[in-house]
Write a structure and sequence with these properties.
Largest sheet: 5 strands, antiparallel
CATH superfamily of the largest domain: Impact, N-terminal domain
Order of helices and strands: EEEHEEHEHEEHEEH
Mean pLDDT: 94
Helix content: 25-40%
Strand content: 35-45%
Low-confidence stretches: none
Number of domains: 2
CATH class of the largest domain: Alpha Beta
Number of helices: 5
């Protein structure tokens, strides 16, 4: 299955019968900070509906949602279903609702929150999700300069570098294919 994700926050606004729904789609790493920032920026909003999808360390998709006071099943689950339908991972979605005076009912809320999520995703710059693997490798001093060249050339993230008397232990992150290329080119 081909998954997609985002690198930058996307937003959109929709209105239904006087209520305004402001949608925000963000990378998982920014979700908690984005939610707190939105709560601070929108003190008069009545609901902050959320949904998330992300891979855990075991490469399983973990999902969550919150109706934040809306009737059960009317908001969080419908937005999560939109994230699922778009094959999005490692993302969080927040819909900020300003009540417009008209009760929408369960069906109206489902339509409104679904529409908000769809419009927000439509405004986002989606990118293919690439699973990243980690590699811990010891590189002798004789090969360290070549390793640093390959790390830069192959766009590998260096998470950690510890030196000892014979070389450096590197913790690297990239796709499995790129890490295998790195090891083959370095001859280790």
């Amino acid at each position: 299955m081909n998954f997609a994700t985002i690198q930058h926050i996307a937003s959109a606004t929709v209105s239904h019968k006087g209520s305004h729904f402001h949608g925000f789609l963000c990378p998982s790493a920014q979700f908690e900070a984005t939610l707190q920032s939105l709560r601070d920026e929108h003190p008069k909003a009545v609901h902050f509906v959320t949904s998330t999808r992300a891979f855990n360390a075991h490469k399983q998709i973990v999902e969550s949602f919150s109706d934040d006071g809306e009737p059960k099943g009317s908001s969080g689950m419908p937005t999560l279903n939109v994230l699922r339908g778009a094959n999005l991972v490692n993302v969080g979605f927040v819909s900020v609702r300003y009540f417009g005076g008209t009760l929408l009912g369960i069906g109206g809320l489902v339509r409104a929150y679904t529409d908000c999520a769809l419009q927000t995703i439509a405004s986002a710059a989606l990118v293919p999700y690439i699973a990243l693997d980690s590699l811990c490798v010891h590189v002798p001093f004789a090969k360290l300069q070549h390793a640093q060249y390959l790390i830069k050339k192959l766009d590998i993230a260096m998470l950690q570098q510890n030196f000892d008397s014979t070389g450096a232990e590197l913790v690297l992150q990239a796709s499995g294919e790129i890490l295998r290329s790195f090891e083959a080119a370095l001859g280790i």
